[in-house]
Amino acid sequence: MAFVLSLFGGRLFQLQAVDAVNYGASAAAARTQDYVLTATRGAILDSAGRPLAESVDAVDITADPVQVRSLKQDPAVYASKLAALLGNPPGSVDVGKLRAKLSDVTTRYVLLAKQITPQVWNQVKALGLSGVYGVPDAKTVYPSGPVASNLVGFIDGSGKGAAGLERAYDGLLAGKNGRISYQAADGAEIPTAGINEQAPVPGTSIETTIDAAIQWAAQRTIDAQVSASKAESGTVVVMDPRTGAILALATSPSYDQTNLSAVNPADLGDRAVSEVYEPGSVAKVITMAAAIQQGVASPTTRVVVPGAIQREGTVFHDDTAHATEHLTLTGVLAESSNIGTIETTDTFGPDRDQILYRYLTEFGFGRYTGLNLPGESAGLLAPPSKWSGSQRYTIPFGQGLSVNAVQATSVFATIADAGARVTPNLVKGYVDTGGRFTAAPAASRTQVVSPGTAHEVEQMMESVVSEKGTAPAAKIPGYRVAGKTGTANRFDSRCGGYCGYTASFIGFAPADDPQLVVSAVIQDPTSGPYFGGSIAAPVFQKVMSFALQSLAIPPTGTKPPNLPVQW
Amino acid sequence: MSAGPPEGPPDSIRGRVRRPGRVGPVAVIEGFAGRRSVVPFAILVLCLLAAGLVILLLLNTALDRGAFQIQAAQKRRSQLTDRQQELQLSLAALSAPGALASQASALGLVPNPRPAFLNPSSGAVLGVPTPAPTTAAPSPSPSPSPSATPSASGTASATASPTAPASASASASASASASAPGARP
């Protein structure tokens, strides 16, 4: 007897004295309810402060089938009542599925509907269905439609930014989740037991430099041209040369963030920074700027252009066969002569390759643009020591190196901004929850060529957009437009070499007071013409004329210089 | 009593001095309260108690009414917030460039490929004003706007004269009006 009692006593001692702390802790844990308070995600705004992507309140509807059964409720009635309110349009949801979920008593949690609007949730609440709950779950909406989807990106199922700006600025946009914990019995809070709440910190909104209207026009125009030319893809970049601000960054094919299941994964990134291509003749602008800045040529320098020349065992031709021509340096650019460009670099002297490399680098080739978008490629620009024999002569006309569309656009912005290169930028500033705006740090500015050189190159580029040049289709009547076409052989890994073309046109207007730079790049057009002047210049023309009207930029009313192209 | 008679001490003192041994009067007070009824006092206490209860009740009711008002106001606020969010979203959808463009083309407006401006102060025409092509706008691509309606511009006649507010809203973003005075001040 005494032995049994001492056993009991021992057990009592064990429970009360030795294990008490553990039991107490597990009891406290069992009655403590711990919830994450999700922070409201910041919005992505356009330059006017209108939302491109915005987080709004939404509610997930969940249910506890076990509770529904224990309350002797009929899951079928629940299902039909809920089905009348859920779905888009209301009533379109599958009643059978709802009933099956509500009848599944093996679980105490089923998700009936995800991210419904607060209005619908209020209606559901008014039904008074016990065992049906609403859990706040903010959702991201795109009020302007999918105008800049490749740039804005989207949010994955776990609420993290998965592409575009949503990913690049995820940390800032997401804010900081809070949490709340309290003691509860049977799901109800125990009064006076104390609540431990840590409020969530809402995310910061990002105000971009994107102009939604221009972005829309650019997207629409490039979509139309890509489908007309049966091209693989296309991009349009619109930039303000004075500030480096990107006003539009459109790529085609694009996608709709609200229907991600139908997306080709190849279309998710932003080709304007992720896709690199050989720029072709648009790079001649750098060669010309280098020649003028080095003092070895001027826009009227006379160049004798034979039908073909041989360098390092390779014979170079121009795009169209011709007899010996007498072109000025302006004419070499206007007619986009490869031979004339190679001959111009011959005058650079013994440091030719280093000079070329220096200008290519200073104009931004081979370096990241600074836009901080995910998936950016800085392109390929080998140092001169690694240039092969023929590469030394193709680089001046833009083959044998690769760039992305923003890098190429930035070259023209530099010429347009009197030779000063402003780092391209996409974020104007940050808006906190109180609506306070903090401007992003100013973009850095470096003088690449002198204002005089830039002015002369600008005048030469105006002749490209003349009847004598390669891109009369880029003309906007009344405006002075400067630009350059590019029709490059396209390196394609699928055929292991060059097949197909990259057609491009980059230009700015008004040429004597540049306020906008627009670039249009079309990859692998397979139907109809493939020249930059035929398919990219019209895209430039449409987007530029839209943007000039949208931003109310009148023509300057001055006369173009009409530099001589022949002698 | 500073002007009292100087011949002796006051009566009271004299009295006490005169009758030091008398302690009898205690008995007189005895029985004074014992004979009184307890009822009035009980009624008084009960009344006080009842009054207290009524006041407490009124106080509670007032407080509760305040709580109910707060609750109703909070509910209303949350409804209005939801409504504001809903309206802001639909406003944003309506003012999206794609929606504006489809509205504009439904009114018979077409994009102008040749921008021109009129300076209202000098009357100078900047650019080369040209009538915009009245045939269907080159828009073979589906409009990215989710709410886009099929364009009616194909059948719109050139005589369609959009009303002032329509052209203002269209030119704000769609730049569909050829003569939109866009000169900057």
Average of the residue pLDDT scores of chain A: 90
CATH architecture assignment of one domain in chain A: 3-Layer(aba) Sandwich
Count of alpha/pi helices of chain A: 19
Percentage of β-strand residues of chain A: 15-25%
Got a strand count of chain A?
A: 26
Task: Say what oligomer this is.
Answer: heterodimer
Order of helices and strands of chain B: HHHHEEH
Strand tally of chain B is 2
Greatest contact pair? A-B, 44 and 46 residues
Considering DSSP H and I runs of 4 or more, what fraction of the residues of chain A is helical? 25-40%
Percent of residues in helices of chain B:
40-55%
Order of strands across the biggest sheet of chain B?
1-2
Strand share of the residues of chain B?
under 5%
Report the uncertain regions of chain B: 1-5, 11-17, 137-185
Question: In this structure, how is the largest beta sheet of chain B organized?
Answer: 2 strands, antiparallel
Q: What is the distance, rounded to the nearest whole angstrom, between the alpha carbons of the first and last residues of chain A?
A: 127 Å
In CATH terms, what is the fold-level topology of one domain in chain A? Answer: Beta-lactamase
Categorize the overall geometry of chain A: elongated
Structural class of chain A: alpha+beta
The termini of chain B sit apart by 101 Å
Can you tell me the CATH class of one domain in chain A? Alpha Beta
Keywords (chain B): Membrane, Transmembrane, Transmembrane helix
Protein name (chain B): Cell division protein FtsL
What can you see in these coordinates?
- The complex is a heterodimer of chains A (567) and B (185).
- Chain A is an alpha+beta fold.
- Chain A has 19 helices and 26 strands.
- Chain A has a domain of 325 residues: DD-peptidase/beta-lactamase superfamily (Beta-lactamase), CATH 3.40.710.10.
- In chain A, the strands form 8 sheets. A 6-stranded mixed beta sheet of chain A has the order 7-3-2-11-21-22, with no helix packed on it.
- In chain A, helix 12 crosses helix 18.
- With 185 residues, chain B is mainly alpha-helical.
- Chain B contains 5 helices and 2 strands, in the order ααααββα.
- The relative contact order of chain B is 0.10.
- At the A-B interface, strand 3, helix 6, helix 10 and helix 19 of A face helix 3 and helix 4 of B.
